[in-house]
Amino acid sequence: MRELTVLAFAKLNLTLRVVGRREDGYHLLQSLFCAVDLADRITLAPRERGIELVAPAELGPPEANLAVRAARALLPAGQPGVRIELAKGIPAGAGLGGGSADAAAVLAGLNELFSLGLPLDELRAIAADLGADVPFFLGPSPAWVEGIGDRITPVDLALPAAFLILVPPFRCPTAAVYRQYDELGLPSSAPGPVASVPPFPNDLWPAALRLWPELGAVRDVLASAAPGGVGMTGSGSALFASFPSRAAAVAARDRITPRIGGEVFVASPIRSGYRI
């Protein structure tokens, strides 16, 4: 049986509003998700039984990896088995959704590789058990995502031609940011759809900035080269800015890269969270 390669794309939260909180503590969100062409590359190869992961050691133990968990959810008996080779292009832990994208790509890829024939709704139900962001990556982009990631509506919205994504040399753990958000006592945003972007509002920004004040300097550097506005994706630490063309984003990258630490990427919006 053939190998199959799947590209798992990063996401940006072009908007992120905290609109409430459930009794169990989960924050209720409204967010405009957009997939961009910064990607991990996943190669799936059948094996007799069991799940093998070949990935950078810094990603941690295989049993904790979302790609492995996705394979186990779809192939619970481990037969047929699969070898998952994961080449990272998306920085981990920066709010770009790389782990969730990998899980979705594995679900879609195994569905194709083994001709399982599972419909999107069934794949999304499996994805929801893996993580709040995973279902988005199985469908079209951009999409309006609500609740705890369980309500997804594709949207037809004009998007910038390109983004400059800046990943600082530090991370903002999601749990810490939400805890700080609660401690700040910020009021919930009023729910409602997004008519256009930019601007790129993110209700978690004050909490992330309180914990990591250096984010302010990073944002200022990015804003100095970005006429289209600056935003933060997820709970950080990655920030992004929009540009009217990819060439303009590349020029801005070249201007600001000597002034900052971390990684800088140019990416464009795409219409799906994965590609086979």
From TrEMBL:
GHMP kinase C-terminal domain boundaries: 213-256
Keyword terms: ATP-binding, Isoprene biosynthesis, Kinase, Nucleotide-binding, Transferase
Enzyme Commission designation: 2.7.1.148
Pfam families registered for this protein in UniProt: GHMP_kinases_C, GHMP_kinases_N
Domain GHMP kinase N-terminal, residue spans: 65-138
Pathway: Isoprenoid biosynthesis; isopentenyl diphosphate biosynthesis via DXP pathway; isopentenyl diphosphate from 1-deoxy-D-xylulose 5-phosphate: step 3/6
Residues annotated to bind ATP: 91-101
Enzyme active site: 11, 133
Keyword Nucleotide-binding: yes
Catalysed conversion reaction: 4-CDP-2-C-methyl-D-erythritol + ATP = 4-CDP-2-C-methyl-D-erythritol 2-phosphate + ADP + H(+)
Purpose of the protein: Catalyzes the phosphorylation of the position 2 hydroxy group of 4-diphosphocytidyl-2C-methyl-D-erythritol.
Record-stated family: Belongs to the GHMP kinase family. IspE subfamily.
Protein name per UniProt: 4-diphosphocytidyl-2-C-methyl-D-erythritol kinase
